[in-house]
Amino acid sequence: MNLNIEKYKLAISLLFIYSLGFTINVLVPLISDDFSYMRMGLDLSSHYQHYMTWSGRLEADLISSTILQFDSVLIKSLINTFPLIALCYFVYKIVSLYSESDPLITPLIAFSCYFLFNPNLGQTTFWIVGSANYLWTTAFCIIFTYSICLLTTLDKISKKEEIIIYASAVLAGCSSEASSALMVSASALALLYNHFVTNKNKRITTISFMLCLVGFLVLVGAPGNKVRLASDVFSAWRDMGLFEKVEYHFSERIPSLMRYLKFELAISLFCFILFVIKSKYKFTKSTFYLYIAPFIGFSFIILILIFSPYTPERSVNILTVILAIPICASINNLTKWIKVTITFLIVIVMLVNWSHVYSSYSRVYIQDVMRRAYIHEMISKEIYDIKLPLYNFSNFFKEFDLWDLFSNEYEIARYFGAKKVTVIPVNVDYSYLSTQPNYTCKIDEGTEKEKAYSINFYVDSFNDVLLIGETNSSKGTIDGLTKINTSINTNSGKHQYELPSNNINIFDRNFIVVRVPSVGINKSKEITVSLNGSDCTVEINR
């Protein structure tokens, strides 16, 4: 009966995690390198060329190009969410080997840590190519970490476990440069431990080490890595001496890499200290595997990245999972109501972050729908030189939860059948043009025909934002305006400002963007803007 309850609790936690991940995944359009990897497909000659000239990440390239062959966003999202629950499940399994591990609490804590402290959530998790390079490979490494734990803990390995160990060894070895180096080092230590200390599982440990090493050599030995390193982009890094690289790494890179991880590291260290005090300074297997080993792994990744010419925040994705292990283990050792309360509070904070991500991605999803509609409209009119606004994110809990904003304009044009696509930054959330009421104000100058302007507004994290757009009757009249007199009548009174404005073009329409102090514009009764010396007033009827 208890076993069934444990299974239900595990199923509930994993299903909850999966639903959160899937809900975000379906909002992410094709972005950045997705277009080129989708075109690469499963053509082996293309992957070979890529391996020889760009990168040794065959595993990640094959995963991303395979997922991208599906046209359905639902199918892509269903597949791309699986590594999330794999991470949480195998963290639960690792903790279970050495300590009490609640099947409801451990996965939820692991996921919350991953979501809250991830250095670049959008680029590691909710973008197909980024996910293949970081989320999927991290999942493979955590599965192989569990395999190493089995090899050094159990007296006998079953055939099923042996197959999982071998498969995860290859996949972890081929993962990503720093992570695979850690996996090879960990499997080498397991090999020495089993041969010279425990004298068990020697054959399987040896084979798994060799498979992991082969995967690592395939990854780092790719000719494409040398070609890429020889580019002018990395010339300054190549010219540095070893001590210069160390100084640069710790003074420039580490503060950026540790932006969010430092909080998880502090919590993990606190959990370790609590455990040591509670265990009365006794060193056991659980002390090493659940507390000391994660900090060794953390230190290894930080040090090995000294030798990497490029270390974006996403390159330390695996550390969010490694540092979650001591936190999960420590919370599970608390009394029932304390650990339930702590888990509840952590999950609540995670859900606040999740709601911000969902809100922002939902707005960008609408932006993508608008972009696609505009592209199809232009092509139907036989216009093949198309200008698109860049995606604009807002309302984030953490700054780096957005995905990669690089736009491969050539591949976008090729995908949609255009001759040329130009993507232009606009620094405004233009999704509100589609979802908010579109008000119109008019100027009648007597001698000329009436001019009409569209008025849209929304509230962002810091300001109220006004979007004043040209219509057919007012084309070319707001291009040169740099300051706007604005009057907003709300329940609390009339607010008047003379403010600088931005001129932007969205979908071949000119707009003025005016950011005003937060005055509750969503509850305004009347808005007046002065355009070319004439007042344009709109009454807001709700």
TrEMBL record:
Sorted UniProt keywords: Membrane, Transmembrane, Transmembrane helix
> Which chain regions cross the lipid bilayer?
12-32, 73-92, 104-122, 134-151, 163-192, 204-222, 260-277, 289-308, 315-334, 340-361
Q: Which domain of life is it from?
A: Bacteria
InterPro entries with a match to the protein in the record: DUF6056
Name of the protein in its database record: Uncharacterized protein
Source organism of the structure: Salmonella enterica subsp. enterica serovar Telelkebir
Recorded hits in Pfam families, A to Z, give: DUF6056 (PF19528)
